[in-house]
Amino acid sequence: MKKNKIEESFFERVYSVVRQIPYGKVTTYGIIARCIGSPQAARMVGWAMNNSHNVIPEVPAHRVVNRNGILTGKNHFGEIELMQKLLNEEGIEVVKDQIVDFHSHLWDPMTIY
Questions:
Q1: In CATH, what number is assigned to the domain containing residue 34?
Q2: Which of 22, 38, 65, 94 ranks highest by number of CB atoms within 10 Å?
Q3: Neighbouring C-beta atoms of residue 17, cutoff 10 Å
Q4: More confident residue, 53 or 94
């Protein structure tokens, strides 16, 4: 399926933010949407993540979760446990598809730390 120019631009803006997520951190669909100036577009950010697995340069989509720290995108990784495995390799513990101590791993590019 070919993307239109608006969708392509939106997806590229999403990927640009996701590529900045630090190792060992995660962010949410909503934070990304807000960061790119489309605060009501969290679901579309999810669509971008579902489409990101063959994008070059690579997009670390495993670092994007829902607002409660749940791995809602895990079914789009080909291997059902791959998203959790990648997060575990970065030191992020996941129990029953939810990040343990979610807020200590949360990255928001619009917040100054």
A1: 1.10.10.10
A2: 65
A3: 20
A4: 94
